[in-house]
User: Fold these one by one.
Assistant:
Number 1:
Amino acid sequence: MRTAVYPGSFDPITLGHLDIVERGARLFDHLIVAVLVNLRKEPLFEVEERIAMATESVSHLPNVSVDHFPGLLVHYLRSKQARVIIRGLRAVSDFETELQLASMNKELMPDCETIFIPTEHQFSYLSSSIVKEIARHGGTVDRFVPERVKTRLESRYREESPGR
Ligand code: ADP
């Protein structure tokens, strides 16, 4: 069975991520969306909530599951007997960091491969941070995230500024 792992912060999962999940899932027997637990910067959503949103968003895909991992991605890959990492590429600006990550993961685990899936052009400007920024200021995020993620974003920011 060919298993691939799509790691990320998913704070929160967007339609851009989901597009990569759907396309990745067509290439492998099993795709694991792996939510990174310890983020360098403070996430908006706790890991449980990021997992819940990802799980709700991929429920229509039978060969996709959602999991989380605390530390090094290569340790997680080994524990799942997986060798393939999926990452999405939006712009040239993603490339530098992504190449660095892929090279380091290869150094740490020589038999792993990173596969890059290019974004669909309508998602090329989409990121979790920009979506959070729009929602924080009361803008509409319908076109950028799954419905349930939109609801959670709205209620999160309503808690922060109850007057809105
Ligand atoms: P990280 O903090 O590890 O970059 P993200 O959740 O921001 O985690 O992203 C996970 C992966 O999804 C990365 O490979 C990122 O480039 C990719 N990605 C994020 N947004 C999009 C998008 N709109 N289209 C395609 N790929 C995307």
Note: DSSP finds six helices and five strands in the chain.
Number 2:
Amino acid sequence: MGRTLIINVEHNSELIQFLAKIAEENKIVIATFTAIGALKSAKIAFYNQEKHDYHSIPIETPHEMVSCIGNISIKDGKPFIHAHVVLANEAGNVKAGHLLEGIVFASEVYLTELKGLKLDRKHDEITGLSLWNRE
Ligand code: ZN
């Protein structure tokens, strides 16, 4: 196991970009993380398995970030953030999916670096996704 980071995400920052910057600054290549908090707006996505295409779902209003889990690995030589999220509105109804972007109201991230693994993302013909490639 590597380092453990407890991160208070900056107000108004975009969560995916913010985590990529943290990974780059700390030279993190493999990690897992969880985040909770609240987003001012977000864009989530659903992957169409036949069309090999992400269908984007905009969320324009504030939501609780009930749960966000993800990982960091390397794609094209740079840290790549893969995150899934469950968001709840004021009625407690949830929307969930692959997180494309989230504007942070407040968020706490718990990140665990994993040492001794080499994971690189490579294009996978069958799924159309960039999947882990272990060498
Ligand atoms: Zn995903």
Note: The chain is about 10% helix and 65% strand.
